[in-house]
Design goal:
Blueprint: H1 3-12, H2 22-37, H3 44-51, H4 65-89, H5 94-110, H6 114-122, H7 129-155, H8 163-176, H9 190-200
Helix pairs in contact: 1-4, 2-3, 2-4, 2-6, 4-5, 4-6, 4-7, 5-6, 5-7, 5-9, 7-8
Amino acid sequence: MNRDDILQSLIADNLVSAPDSARGRLLREAARLFRDKGYERTTVRDLAAAVGIQSGSLFHHFRTKEEILKAVMVETIRLNTAVMQAAMDAADSSREKLRALVRAELESINGQTGEAMAVLVYEWRSLSETSRAEVLKLRDIYEALWLEVLGSLKDEGALAADPFVVRRMLMGALSWTVTWYRPERGGLTLDGLTDQVVAMLGFSQS
């Protein structure tokens, strides 16, 4: 399944919002504003203006601004976890699975969900304890995919470092690509960047 097929499946199961729906447009604009202005500095009026509605109309979809923040995070994790799982399932070896994970995460960070991914990183503390626990459960599922593959590589003798440490280092490095990776300027393609990351871990391109 490609990313669009996965998205449509999640929409059908009411796990994420359709991008062209009122709720989907609101979450997309909220992710942009929360990234650009910060959650605390973004007002309900800002959110309403971004989607061209009255402030009170926001509460047809969400009870509070924090619910919007949580929905941005939850739906982003659900989509990207499903994309990564599908990429893993389509790969045969542990090395191929690792490449698939790197490729999928780079796409999520530098593609359509990039703003929401940044919000996940920088606005984590803006959630209440209850909401944070809910998001954390989903994040643990996402991270378990990485640790499963890295653990397999460790068991196979292909990875010398601790899988947990490797994942934390990769998380920081991949997240940082949004600050400098500019494929439209004639640089590396996403596949080329993926190959470079995998090569840094000591694996040759396949």
